[in-house]
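Support case: pyridoxal-5'-phosphate complex. Customer-provided input:
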Amino acid sequence: MKAWEKNIRTIKHPYVAGYQPKDYSVTKLNANENPYPPAPGVVKAMEEFETSSLRLYPALNADELIDEIAHFKQVKPSQVFVGVGSDDVIGMCFLTYFNSGKPILFPDITYSFYDVWADLYRIPYECPKLDEKFHIKKEDYYKDNGGIIFANPNAPTSIAVGLDFIRDVLEHNQDVIVIVDEAYIDFGGESAVSLLEEYDNLVVVQTFSKSRSLAGLRVGYCIASEELIQALNTVKFSYNSYTMNMLAIKLGAESVKDTEYFYQTIDKIIATRTWSKEQLEQLGFTCMDSSTNFLFATHKSMAAKEIFEKLQERKIYVRHFDKERIDNYLRITIGTDQQMEQLVNALKEILPDEKNING
Ligand SMILES: *Cc1c(COP(=O)(O)O)cnc(C)c1O
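Agent response - structure generated as follows:
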């Protein structure tokens, strides 16, 4: 071992993203991306973008984007912080808010990046177990802690909690920062943004990656009290002043302006989700009650891993987690109607014929 090796920051388990095939012809239902294109205004702004302006640095405060988000969410611009996807925003929140030395809390089954950031920043953490139906138990969050983060709706379970739940957690945790990761809130569930007036220790994180069809642009944001946003900005300006590039600012702002397209796209996905859930249940799957753009499903007779592999042979990609408690589940992103029909047809080929089984 070289002398300097021991001084390198090593992370044993970095985050593993869903497989990104180079072949665009595959049916990609493994990363909760939106199957529809971004809003027409985004496409137009991209076409009209003045390439020569790229010689300049982007706007330091990303005002154009922040103002649109603030207007849409009916909060002050000084309550909004934007980043390179919500991953950047949440990572920045961990660095800024979780410095007490006490363990932070998040569920055992949740977005698998939380423990990675905690490891990266040397933040101790504890992971209370979801109950046997994969619901978060609020009593687990009543104990002394260094901060709390949970996803609502949760991933990969797809299950949402109500505002009464979040309010209860906040009431029991007034001395720490509570982050609610609302990556999927636009597909169902009630946003905690309405609680911000009452709780100055609440941070609500959202993203353009799922409901706004802009995963590739990398735009995410959080809304919180001015004081908390100020703290985040101080940390950000001590690390990388220009996180938001010109295109992310411009196209992100255009996306927010087009509310009609936004709600239309969400409605289509919810309708397809309802249809897909019925189809999967007829095929012998049990699906959690989804408030997201994906279904979390387990089959009564065939192992999830086997289904996953057989779908992959047919160029249909879904997500399987080799993790205790959820290794017999598949996380299936809601695609277009056509993609979901393709999935259902493939499953009909793959799954054992019930009549044969029963003799
Ligand atoms: C997708 C996702 C994110 C991060 O998305 P970005 O593309 O970085 O905005 C954060 N949290 C959860 C629960 C997610 O599913």
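DSSP finds eleven helices and 13 strands in the chain.

Case will auto-close in a few days if no follow-up is received.
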